[in-house]
Amino acid sequence: MLKIGGIIFIFVGIAIVCDEYFQPALEAISEALDLSADVAGATFLAAGSSAPELFTSLSDAFSVCPASMGIGTIVGSAMFNILVIVALSCAVAGQSGASLLIDWRPVARDVTYYTISILMMAAFFDDGKVTVAEAAIMVVAYFSYIVFMMFNEKIMAQCSSKVAPDDDKSKQGDVDAAAAALEGGGDEKKASEDSADGGEDGEDDDDGPFWHRITETPEGANPLSWILYLLSLPFLIVFALTVPDCDHPTFTNCFKQIYWVSFLNCILWIGILCHFMVEWAHECAIILDVDPIVVALVVLATGTSIPDAIGSMVAAKNGEANMAISNAVGSNVFDILLGLGLPWVLSGLIKGEDMAVRRDGEC
Known about the structure:
Layout: H1 2-32, H2 37-61, H3 69-96, H4 104-124, E1 129-130, H5 132-150, H6 152-157, H7 174-183, H8 186-196, H9 212-215, H10 223-242, H11 249-252, H12 258-287, H13 292-304, H14 306-317, H15 321-338, H16 341-351, E2 355-356
Antiparallel strand pairs: 1-2
Helix pairs in contact: 1-2, 1-10, 1-12, 2-3, 2-5, 2-7, 2-12, 2-15, 2-16, 3-13, 3-14, 3-15, 4-5, 4-15, 5-15, 5-16, 7-14, 7-15, 12-13, 14-15
């Protein structure tokens, strides 16, 4: 029971470090490198929402006893994204009264790449092992997706849209609005920037100390809110002391490129948390006599998909149907091609052996 509680506790930590620190750092890096919205979304922003799956796969690939938990987590996360996140996005949009005008073009783009990634994975799994060359092909396929995104606007312009002509948001670029949604909405981000520049409008987070997340206690007497706050408190304290908030003037005034420090520290923390999550999940599977892949498919996949779920639901609530669908499906492309391909390439090069696909989950 202690290990199960520890896994749930780690889920909270992963959600906090990804949403509060990693995502803003990646957005700042994208802006500093002057990347277009589509390319940034296919690279840095996708890494922000899918970092837990990537590091779970890395941890499993380099563990003493690989149990295909990385595969189970990514495949389960893909199912969660398609079946649950899309449904939740529609439900949230329906409750908020937002209209969902879906443009078929970005959906067709992401579903096509997702289908190709599934076919590649199935073909490479056929002999029960994945070679370095096969894993490298998956990584190259993901970079072809990035190249496609560089010309996305021109290609999309050649295709006729079925959505209403006044749906301007569908023409903006899928990831631009999704990034704003993941950040908490364009208005909040603008107020944060104004405050960092010395503006007098936002008496928001930037006006307080950099540890403001620690002192922001839940309002009211909702027990669930207080339980979540108490679970989050240790992580809020540790992250405030070890990860610079690249949106806060306390750090940006000292070092303009502080986002690189935030980026590296977030990677370190996500790697540590995912390592313990995989190890404890494997131990729980052995104790409960459950296939580790089943634990990964059901438990780890759900926990690591929280950032994607939050981003898609916020986008759908704001009426950004394309953003919600694209975030759910596009994350699957990242998860399968890079989330599985990159760890297998590194494992093959370092260990000097092919990656065995253990379908039975036994060591």
